[in-house]
Amino acid sequence: MNNEIRIVIADDHPIVRQGLRMTIEREADLKVVAEAGNGAEALQIIAELQPEVVILDVDMPNGNGFDVLRKLRETEKSPAVIMLTVHCEEEFFNSAMKHGAQGYVLKDSTVTDIVQAIRAVFAGQNYLSPAVTSYLFQRNKKSVTDGIEQLTPSEKNILKLISEYKTSNQIAEELFISPHTVKTHRKNICLKLNLEGNHSLMKFALEHKNSL
Predict the structure, then answer these.
(1) Which of 136, 117, 113 is nearest to 126 (CA)?
(2) Dist. CA 171–CA 209, nearest whole Å
């Protein structure tokens, strides 16, 4: 069929490849044209068959998934690539995106995610496992919480007043301290939260006022 999406699977575990093939080929328009067990084999097969979509295991011998991805992006006609991994950490995801992957799917969610991922990347869209999205969101939320927890009670109080659009002079009057002390607190808050300038401080205060 001319409208089939042709797919190559590269993973060093035969059982994983078998499971992926079975899941993918339940769909009438998806066809696995070849499998590879390592990075070098994957590059050779992809060059020969020119599939539309490639599923790359991150951890493979003889050229890991990132090595293969980098080399594919150097070719004139490069397929859409989905990275398949057990890693949900941000550094792995960032590396995949940096080198041009369109999809990022966790191995423990491949049955539910892989078909959606294939269709998305084939259509020129990006796809990220919901589990990864949730992890990154929670990590970012935790990072913000940890940052706020570094603040002293006085700094938290000042941040709360900033979220109420109070000026330094108004905060000073309300807390019975000098404007200079307020400015020192503001500077320390920015240092602890890695913020630059009053605009960033106000933005942070407004976004996280319910956490103060």
Answers:
(1) 117
(2) 16
81 CB burial (10 A radius; 0-12, 13-18, 19+): buried
The first and second tokens of residue 206, run together, are 């407004």
Amino acid, res. 163 = S
Taking Cα atoms as reference points, which of 91, 89, 28, 23 lies closest to residue 55? Answer: 23
Q: pLDDT digits over 16-75, tens only?
A: 999 999 999 999 999 999 999 999 999 999 999 999 999 999 999 998 999 999 999 988
Q: Are 57 and 12 in contact (CB under 8 A)?
A: yes
